[in-house]
Amino acid sequence: MATPHIAAEPGQIAPLVLMPGDPKRAARIAAEHLEGAELVSDVRGIGCWTGTWQGTPMSVMASGMGVPSVSIYATELFRFYGVQRIVRVGTCGGMSDKVAVGDTIVATAAHTNASLSTLFVPGISLSWTASYPLLRGAMDAAATLTDATVHTGPVYCSDHFYFANPDIIGGLAKYGTLGVEMESAGLYACAAAEGGEALTVLTVSDHLFDGSQDMTSEQRETLYANSVRIAAAALLA
């Protein structure tokens, strides 16, 4: 049965899902990394492809940008399509002097200024964290890569791309936040609400404090091979 945002039939989406934000990146990942990938949904231009990765059924679906968008797709995948694990494969801006453009970040948690942290339990601002089995699988995979610099730690999920309060950014960086993006808190919250598992693996595409090596838009769409390898290994772990 299709949902308002996904046209796939039951069984057409695998229990394991890679989820980039950009629909073009989703199409490229499906074409380059999945065997026998077939388009099973394309509502509003948000494609979902299903094939296999190393013989295991796996889907790739875009989330769009921001917490509201990823929350729609993640909820429908977990609730209506039997998806068990979603790993976001995206980009972020570096916030720490420990990370550089081109590095990979595995997000253990997602701080956020989005209202969803206060929606679920009255009077409490919930913390959103990755699923440990996926996190462990990602780090086991990262340990085998000799051509990648991989960091683990929290990221900041901002609800406004152009709102960069120096006090907020500086404070988060001081307490170990590695990067800023816009979807992880929504994904982690939906996984917690729906009984699924979720993780985010990010490529650092630019840096808030040093813009000299920022990636171009084209590079952001293509330079993510390490993140995909780590994310897929986590899904299979």
UniProtKB/TrEMBL annotation:
Statement: the UniProt record of this protein carries the keyword Transferase: yes
Sequence ranges assigned to domain Nucleoside phosphorylase in this UniProt record: 16-232
GO-annotated molecular function: purine-nucleoside phosphorylase activity; uridine phosphorylase activity
Catalytic activity annotation: uridine + phosphate = alpha-D-ribose 1-phosphate + uracil
Gene Ontology BP terms: nucleoside metabolic process
A matching Pfam family: PNP_UDP_1
Domain of life of the native organism: Bacteria
Gene Ontology CC terms, in alphabetical order: cytosol
Keywords: Glycosyltransferase, Transferase
EC category: transferase
UniProt EC number: 2.4.2.3
Keyword Glycosyltransferase: yes
Database matches in InterPro entries: DeoD-type (IPR004402), Nucleoside_phosphorylase_d (IPR000845), Nucleoside_phosphorylase_sf (IPR035994)
NCBIfam families: PRK05819.1
Full protein name: Uridine phosphorylase
Organism listed in the record: Propioniciclava sinopodophylli
